Amino acid sequence: MTLFKVIGFGIIAVSLVIILKNQRPEIALMCVVASSVIILLFVFDELKSVIDLINSLMQKSSIDSTYIKIILKVIGISYIIEFGKDICKDAGESAIANKMEMAGKVIIVSLSIPVVASLIDIVTELV
Amino acid sequence: MKNCLKFLVCYICIFILFSFNIFAEEVDVTKNVSESLDVDSYLEVFEKYVEENNLEEFSPKNLYLNLVSGEGIDYKNILDTFVSNLVIQVKESMNSAITIFVIIIVMAILSSLELDKNSDIVKISKLIVLICVSSILLKNYIEIVDMFRNLVNMLGTVMQAVSTFLMGVLIASGKITSTGIIQPLILFISNFICVVTQYIVIPFFTISIVINIISKISENIRLDELSGMFRKSSLYIFSSIIAIFILILSMESTVTKSIDNIYFKTTQNIVSNAVPVVGKFLSDSLDTVLGATELIGKVGGAVALVSVVLIVSVPIIKLIIIVVLYKLLTAFSEPINSDKTIRSLIEGFTKVYKDMLGVLIGIMVLFVMSTGIIMGIISRLSG
């Protein structure tokens, strides 16, 4: 059902953008951004079920949940940054896209510091 | 004549009087030999390790009593213990299976992340996921190494206990030459194997694992061959040591057996022929005591072999299940994830576990062979 929603909304948004592009290009761009965000929101529920499955598996197993949480956060940030970067590139703003990517990298690195520290601890303990 | 009669009556009276107090004392030779060899404290070593490894269904003391009384080995009990142990290990490993399944899902998400392969942010994300997977695998590795280290120490202790007991049996039976050469050798082997495992084999495996992770984390640094070299070196060193010791042990036992047999036959002949009247009885008594000693020695050795095989079967089963699960993980991840990095990381761990399994089986074989060689010398006591 979500698939049909996404496809239907996408076709309507594209038609609207094509109409607006010649008459009001600035509104067409806003329309692109808004429709992209709405499409992303459509799939959030689907994503939630995957995360719930991983959480339930984590409870059953002995995995340290911090690892999976960090992995999920990193993957989520990567998706969002790529999404934002693509929108910026569509709007012809490559400079902002690059800065956005840089910001994403910094956020991911800061988020992953505990994991890297833990790996170093484990290796030190081993050696 | 009267005096002669008096003497005869007195003699008969004394004879009758003392003959009432004469009785044959029943002596349990096997029990006496068991006590002198301190079998109870020997069996306690196995009881302790059997209990530590949750194998309560199996009792080395009962096995010993059954064998001494001639009832034989209760194969059903041993099989039941083995099967219940197998079931426990499979259940415990299911936990690892779930862990691995979660990793597969993470890998699937990671593969779907490939929005733009050249994007830096995707590369960083992959690196973080790789570090997380490495940490999870390393934590499992630490648990397995701890188990491996404890097991090797335990085998060393058991080997020392068994050699001390069996050497006691050899000394009791007059196998002085064999004892003098083989005991130091076996004690040296048990200590040396522990030291080699602690300070060479496990560190080499660990270095191999760490190099494998570094090789996968960095695209520019490729150290797969170095990792393989450390892993294989530890295996070669260990195999060479085991081969050399088995060779020396076999040679020494073959040489010393002839000398001891000559001593034994000479002693038996001297006792039998040189001592007048009771020489033959003494020689037969010697045979009885030696027979009991041989029985105790063989039974003690058999108890040691069965106990050790059962105790070692726990980590061996665990390692086999882990290797199979990791292989399955690699196989499942192939269609899900086109990226080979995580797959080859897991393969590196699998190879180390396989080699660890080989080392463990090698130590067990060494134990079984050395015990078998000593038992072989004991069984030649009478012949």
Topology:
The complex is a heterodimer of chains A (127) and B (383).
Chain A: H1 2-23, H2 25-42, H3 44-60, H4 65-90, H5 94-126
Helix pairs in contact in A: 1-2, 4-5
Chain B: H1 2-19, H2 29-36, H3 39-52, H4 60-68, H5 75-112, H6 120-172, H7 176-217, H8 224-274, H9 279-336, H10 340-379
Helix pairs in contact in B: 2-9, 3-6, 3-9, 4-9, 5-6, 5-9, 6-7, 6-9, 6-10, 7-8, 7-10, 8-9, 8-10, 9-10
General description of the model:
The complex is a heterodimer of chains A (about 130) and B (about 375). Chain A contains five helices and no strands. Chain A has helices at about 1-25, 25-40, 45-60, 65-90, 95-125. Chain A is flat. Chain A has two domains: about 1-40; about 45-125. Chain A is an all-alpha fold and about 130 residues long. By secondary structure, chain B is an all-alpha fold. Chain B has one domain (about 50-380). Helix content of chain B is about 85%, strand content about 0%. Chain B is built from ten helices and no strands. Chain B has helices at about 1-20, 30-35, 40-50, 60-70, 75-110, 120-170, 175-215, 225-275, 280-335, 340-380. In chain B, helix 3 runs antiparallel to helix 6. The interface of A and B includes residues 57 and 72 of A.
Key descriptive features of the protein:
A: mainly alpha; 2 domains; 5 helices; 0% strand; flat; B: mainly alpha; 10 helices; elongated
Residue-averaged pLDDT of chain A: 83
β-strand percent of chain B reads: under 5%
User: Unreliable stretches of chain B, pLDDT < 50, 5 or more residues?
Assistant: none
Helix content of chain A: over 70%
Query: From N to C, what is the helix and strand string of chain B?
Result: HHHHHHHHHH
Distance between the termini of chain A: 53 Å
Rg value of chain B = 31 Å
TL;DR?
The complex is a heterodimer of chains A (127) and B (383). Chain A is mostly helical and 127 residues long. Chain A contains 5 helices and no strands.
